[in-house]
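Provenance

Sequences were taken from public entries as deposited. Structures were produced by running a predictor on each sequence independently, with no templates supplied. The record for Type-F conjugative transfer system pilin assembly protein TrbC from Chromobacterium fluminis is shown for reference.
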Amino acid sequence: MTRLPKIKFALLSLLLLCGELQAQSLYESMRPPKWNSYIFVSLKMPSSTLIALAKESQQAGIPMILAGFEGNQTSIGTTRDRIQSINSACCGKRGGTKWQIYPQLFERYKIHEVPTFVLAKGDSESPADFVKISGDIALADALKRIAQQSTQAEMRARAKQIYTKAFINN
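Predicted structure for Type-F conjugative transfer system pilin assembly protein TrbC:
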């Protein structure tokens, strides 16, 4: 019989006594915060802008987020074709960037214009846990602004880390 370490046993006991959601909450509270980064875009933006953002997105490993399908709400084929075209133009055989259709993220971070860049600690909706910058700027410039101007030290450090890894060390 395999003996579980005490911490795992404690979490397992909580899982059985309190339910899975509460046990995950305890587990999550013991881990360092998970960072999320997003580039919010629309396929209605100029192709040249989307191609440039997709290149930086791929370089930094940050997904491009769409609010929905291009054209009518069921136009997955048109959306897929447009994304493939942008990925091909930006990144060639390197595979392109990752895209997500995730309207709930637009709501969570109150995105009303694109492009918008978001750096968030966890999945919180609290303004204290994320920073966003909107405007027709490059990802590298958005990260530099966050690194230089954010009032939160953790946000400045994380933005600098992403910028350095994606744009200085490459």
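The beta strands are 35-40, 64-66, 99-101, 116-121, 130-134.
Residues 7 and 13 are 10 Å apart (CA to CA).
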